[in-house]
């Protein structure tokens, strides 16, 4: 069963995520994929995450298809103009990649090549419109395609942003542009997520709540101070602070599992972003009872 079929069936769906390496030594990435294989429905592959140059997501997704692991091709608009975006979309379809998550992309100054020129010819909404246009058998200039692709189109929202209204407006535009599933940024407050879900009850596409396991109290404090739209409650930070170093992964899994368990009745899935801790995902899902 594909990600599209699983979500269309109405079942609770879990997706995972990996980041390609900075170089050609892929043994850790392959181990992470083996950790996730058969545990999650599909696996996102980040696209030059945080503007740090890495092995390309398109190549990794193509390899995953060969391995029997369903990929979600994260595609950012930061590094490609509309010619390259359309070409990579056709390439993805030819490789058997169906799921595409449309992202605008972090600015280049955040990464390891701060002098790189960003492109942003399109943004996440116009990229979704572009995918829909290609599916109709035309390119953005109105030229006919010799065979049209078919994709399952995804988008992202930040449910704990303050103010939340701009996020809701953007989400409505993304769905109007063709988004068929939504994965959220990290959520640590079920009450805040419930309030968001009530605000977007009119949006009839599956929403998967984002979960980033905490690795330490320091990480949690850093995210609170530096990552827009993320609020980690003090009790979770304290729980990680009290955990012994050797127990941090176990405590983190308990927190992540509990969060999913508390929120699984509010949405149609969870998107786990383990940041390399893929071996904990099985435990998280057992705790979450999914």
By CATH, the architecture is named: Alpha-Beta Barrel
Distance between the termini: 17 Å
Q: What characterizes the major β-sheet?
A: 8 strands, parallel, barrel
What is the chain-wise order of helices and strands?
HEHEHEHEHEHEHEHHHEH
Write down the CATH topology: TIM Barrel
Overall number of domains: 1
Mean pLDDT: 97
Shape: globular
Q: Any idea of the CATH class?
A: Alpha Beta
Specify Rg, calculated over alpha carbons. 18 Å
**Total E-strand runs:** 8
| Category from helices, strands and their pairing | alpha/beta
Adjacency order of strands in the biggest sheet: 1-2-3-4-5-6-7-8
Helical residue percent band: 40-55%
Helix count, DSSP H or I runs of 4 or more residues: 11
Low-pLDDT parts are none
- Proportion in β-strands: 5-15%
